[in-house]
Write the structure tokens for this entry.
Amino acid sequence: MYLDRRTLLKAGAAVTLTAGLPRFASAAFNPQPGAWRTFDLVTKLEIAKPEGKTQAWVPVPAVNEADWFKSLGSQWTTNGTAALKRDAKYGAEFVHVEWKDGEAAPAITVTSRIATRDRAVDLGKSGSAQLTAAERKHYTEGTDLIPTGGIVKETSDKIVAGAKTDVEKARAIYEWIVDNTQRNPKTRGCGIGDIASMLKTGNLTGKCADLNALYVGLARSQGLPARDVYGIRVAPSKFGYKSLGAGSELVTKAQHCRAEVHLAGIGWVPVDPADVRKVVLEEPPANLALNDPKVVDARQKLFGAWEGNWLAYNFAHDISLPGATGPKLGFLMYPQAECGPNRLDCLDPDTFKYTIMAKEQTAA
């Protein structure tokens, strides 16, 4: 084969350019089931200014899915009285601790061990995966912040118009969210997840608990069972995406909500349109276009796959904390505490105060 000098120069320039690209350029975002990784999550909580009846609720992993996640138990030490509690409807688990009046330095340390791995679902397979009638009802009903009628149903009807199969409907909703929402860096924590307000105001911005809740609500309104999965990032992305992993072992502010949709014959399918928008906003050099290769790779895979550098707490909504005087929670992804009638701000861990550390015990 004959190559002229111009072709050789172009080839040389391409080699030089490729050599200077970050790691993900040669290892596209492509999670695939592989070896399991084991992590310990250590939550240390202190009450800086106790007064009145002082108590706390620390979420612990309660998800067990044979293909991708195992909750291996939790233990704790405290100068209070603590017990593991479980939400009856969703199975969310948390350690509830109460301290005696006058305890000057209420504290608890909770250590949870989990095993996790990458996940990828074959959307072309045809199997026997089905939900029971009770499970289908459970995962298609509305919640306080995720209604399935009104503007939610009206919006989803427009999105899925022309889609013939459940897979097509589920993907159409995913693509619509990626195209029509934005991650808002000013949103506190992971957001609230009030999807009707988002649609009524037209303000389709927020973070994972907003954007992925929007996916769940739109899917449920079409009769597609769907659920939020509330958790926390525990390790960097092995694909080099800085925006899709924890930056260090200190993961106090690394909470992340993902989502799933159940497709007959296929089973639970992981989806995460919120993380696509996170890549757009945060992946260096930031504010990427939707056609940027890094965004395209993430967008393609985050319908049907996700990386196992993340811990799942629960699927719960509308949680009433036992013994609490404050209101129920839209979701449980952060430690909670009350001093007398006052609930502390869970999004202000420095004042609260608590830290969460993730330590890998075995590498893949």
